[in-house]
């Protein structure tokens, strides 16, 4: 059994749920407005965490953006999962039309029925899906942790991408715990947000 002490639950706790946000080909396609600059590094880190969760049989859920905007065509193959990160049988999937995962009625109902739930958010759309889900979850007393080296946002129209990501992370930090995979504060099985 593979156990990473940074994320392992204490004996009396349920394991945290890994929430994979919008790991779709849209974000990898050059020329698209939502392309991710550091997609290779982020997808690699997400795959590492997904492998850890699956290896320990911890719960995994996947979020898929199905917006009805001109820039995001739900009928296009660009909304398909990234092949290496697509859901496996038994893993929950939720489609959300608005940035927040809570815009999915199924997701909102599922989360409302969970007690003392802890979620680890990874994936794309840091400045939309991850931000709005963390804020909505905070207002519902759901605890989120965002793994900094496993999240990414689109390239900003102007300015430095790293500064943009830092600014978004600072805002999210008001609603969720920000963690890096190598963060020493994650020691002692601490994953609560």
Describe the protein's topology:
Blueprint: E1 17-21, H1 39-55, E2 60-65, E3 92-96, H2 105-112, E4 118-123, H3 126-138, E5 143-151, H4 161-172, E6 177-179
Parallel strand pairs: 1-2, 1-4, 2-3, 4-5, 5-6
Helix pairs in contact: 3-4
**Which stretches of 5+ consecutive residues score pLDDT under 50?**
184-193
User: Can you give the mean pLDDT?
Assistant: 82
Number of helical segments with 4 or more residues: 4
- Main pleated sheet: 6 strands, parallel
Order of SSEs, N→C? EHEEHEHEHE
Q: Structural class of the helices, strands and pairings?
A: alpha/beta
- Helix percentage range: 25-40%
N-C termini distance? 25 Å
So what's the overall shape? globular
Tell me the β content.
15-25%
How many β-strand runs? 6
Our Rg estimate from Cα atoms comes to 16 Å
> Biggest sheet, strands in spatial order?
3-2-1-4-5-6
């Amino acid at each position: 059994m593979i156990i990473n002490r940074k994320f392992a639950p204490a004996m009396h706790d349920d394991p945290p749920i890994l929430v994979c946000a919008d790991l779709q080909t849209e974000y990898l396609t050059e020329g698209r407005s939502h392309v991710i600059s550091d997609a290779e590094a982020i997808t690699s880190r997400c795959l590492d965490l997904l492998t850890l969760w699956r290896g320990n049989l911890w719960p995994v859920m996947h979020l898929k953006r199905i917006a009805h905007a001109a820039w995001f065509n739900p009928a296009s193959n660009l909304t398909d999962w990234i092949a290496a990160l697509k859901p496996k049988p038994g893993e929950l999937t939720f489609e959300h039309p608005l940035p927040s995962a809570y815009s999915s009625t199924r997701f909102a109902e599922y989360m409302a029925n969970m007690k003392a739930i802890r979620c680890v958010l990874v994936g794309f759309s840091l400045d939309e899906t991850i931000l709005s889900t963390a804020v909505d979850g905070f207002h519902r007393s759901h605890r989120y942790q965002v793994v900094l080296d496993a999240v990414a946002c689109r390239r900003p129209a102007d300015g430095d991408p790293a500064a943009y990501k830092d600014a978004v992370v600072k805002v999210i930090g008001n609603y969720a715990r920000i963690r890096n995979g190598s963060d020493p504060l994650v020691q002692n099985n601490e994953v609560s947000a």
